[in-house]
Protein: Putative Flp pilus-assembly TadG-like N-terminal domain-containing protein
Organism: Methylobacterium oxalidis
Amino acid sequence: MAVIFGLSATVLLGMAGGAADYARLVQRRGQLQAAVDAGALAGGNALKLAASSRASIVGLTEQVIRDAAKAPADQSLRLTVTVPDDKTSVYARAEQTIRLTFGSLVGLGTTQVSAQARANVVGRMRLCMLALDPSAPGAFLLEKNAAVTASGCSLYSNSKSANGMVGKDSAMARAETICSAGGFNGARANFAPSPQTDCPVIEDPLKDRAPPPVGDCATLPASAAKNGKPKANENRVETTLTLEPGTYCGGLKITGSAVVTLRAGVYVMKDGPLIVEQNASLSGTDVSFYFTGNKGGLLFDKKTTVSLTAPTTGVMAGLLMTEDRAVSAPVDPVVDVVNGVVGALTAPLLGQPDALTLTPPPLGQTKPMRTYRIISDNTRTMLGTIYLPAGRLVIDAKKPVADQSAYTVIVAQQVNLYEGPNLYLNANYDLTSVPVPKGVGPLSGKLMLTQ
């Protein structure tokens, strides 16, 4: 046997090989640590949004770890993920058996490498937007140049589609957390932070809210029409007027240069839309809207001015808008206006620079949806929660929407923004007496990661 400086070649080979094995083990442990850190953080972020089961949190955490760890097929990864009953933390541990290249020279063929992490949730993340559609592409969609600014709260899509959340060229979203139950398609968009994918589905947090009563049909005063002669079977306002809460059968149309102020209360749009068009304005404090029937929906046209604040008390406390969940054959208010069925005065404007255009169709849908479209460039205050479980909120204004609201929360079947708008979802709950409905609550949330 060759001897070099008193050491056998075998011993020297073992020492050199041991150093190589050691370096490989250190590198692999670092990879596992990064993987369990990522998994625990993903699970913790899902916990902050509440409404998720322990099983879904565990599944998400495990999947993130396996994707990040990239264990070879011949080296199984053993995972332990636990979530306590109070759902305040996620613990993750990963173990792997590593074959040593030179360990057999000293009687050690394999060794164990492990890493662990715990993400503790302090508080709950504020949820300011949730798209409920379970599988449609583009349930949350930002077209070219559209933007959502959601400082201090979270944007969430329940769609399991690989394209459930979509951001097109130059689209922008800013939030505390952005999460998709499916995938995200947005290579040319600017979302910060980058959306998490494969997040747990969030149960509709407002599904137990009771609807307001639907009463007898209200009648507009004769002064609502310019000539004092209202059209039969049409709630049309053309003048400066203060309206009372009630049930508006066939909906309500505010047109021309009308200036309408709403007294506090609930305004039910029964079998017809709420339309504010041309140069009209609509304002109300301590008001809410309930939409029912296939012709329900909303249109705020380009040159209109709208300022609305939700009630502080009562069955609709905190809810600015909501709707009947049952709809079978919805009619887009824009179609009626363009066809002259609802608003004959708008039809001659087609082809003009500010003419009303048809609402872009959704990328996909899983059930019929009413359409709620905001084109208005002066809808700065929308204070409260917009809850549209059977509705599609479409925003294609050119100027900021809801930026002067203390807070705005949106829970809708779909949320689609087209070229130009910047939707602000503020979360300044302490600046208003309008309550935030339970489930989208006002508590902030932070994650503390330990290893």
